[in-house]
Amino acid sequence: VRLVESGGGLVQAGGSLRLSCAASGTSFPIGDMGWHRQAPGEERELVARIRRDGGATYGESVKERFSISRDRGKNTVHLQMNSLKPEDTAVYYCYAQVAQYTSWGHGRQVTVSP
User: Is there a contact between 54 and 70 (Cβ–Cβ < 8 Å)?
Assistant: First the structure.
C-alpha cells in the first residue's frame, strides 16, 4: 500500500492545521486508517484512527480538539487539528491496515509555536 501524506506545517498556538493521507496500490479492502505522532525523545503515540464503517478513536490528549474523517471511496483520511498546542509538535505518520499488514507513510512535520 502506498500512502501519500499532505498538509501540516507551522502554526501558532490556538491555530488549526489539516493533514490528509491517500492510500493506493492495493486491490484488497483497506481496514483501519489513522495517524500516530512522534515527538523528539518520545515514543510514537496514537492520535486518531477510523474504521471502514466510520467509527473513530482518539488519543486522550487530542480528544475534543482533533477530528478524523474518511473518504471511503477514495481511501483518503483527513485529520482536522484545532486549538493546537505547543505539545502537539511532532512528526505525524499516516497508517493503513490491509488484512494483517500495516503500512506507514513517511511522516509530516507539525510545529506549534507558543
Answer: yes
Residue 63 sits at φ, ψ, to 5 deg, of: -55, 145
CA angle 53, 55, 61 (to 5 degrees): 155
Return the C-alpha cell found at 19: 493533514
Q: Cell triple for residue 93?
A: 505518520
Distance between CA atoms of 21 and 113, rounded to whole angstroms?
A: 24
pLDDT in tens, 22-78: 999 999 999 999 999 999 999 999 999 999 999 999 999 999 999 999 997 769 999
Taking the C-alpha atoms of residue 86 and residue 110, their distance in angstroms, rounded to an integer, is 10
